[in-house]
Design goal:
Keywords: Lyase. GO terms for molecular function: lyase activity. This is Chorismate--pyruvate lyase. The protein is an all-beta fold. It has one domain: OB fold (Dihydrolipoamide Acetyltransferase, E2P), CATH 2.40.50. The chain is 0% helix and 52% strand. The chain contains no helices and 5 strands. The chain has strands at 4-13, 16-21, 30-33, 46-50, 53-57. A 5-stranded antiparallel sheet has the order 3-2-1-4-5, with no helix packed on it. A hairpin with a 2-residue loop joins strand 4 (46-50) and strand 5.
């Protein structure tokens, strides 16, 4: 069974992005290498994480 998590890009620092989980209350940011994220992300982009992949949401 796969879980689906939702994030928003809080900040971008070089080759890394800080993601804030939006589907549940979490205080910590998740640091993720930009190479693992879809092209075209920017601060405020919404992402869905499912089956070990991040997907940019419209």
């Amino acid at each position: 069974m796969f879980e689906t998590w939702f994030y928003v890009v809080e900040s971008i620092d070089g080759d890394y992005a800080n993601l804030k989980r939006t589907d549940m209350e979490v205080d910590d940011l998740k640091l993720v290498a930009r190479a693992l994220l879809p092209e075209g992300i920017a601060v405020g982009s919404r992402l869905k994480y499912e089956m070990l992949q991040y997907e940019l949401m419209e």
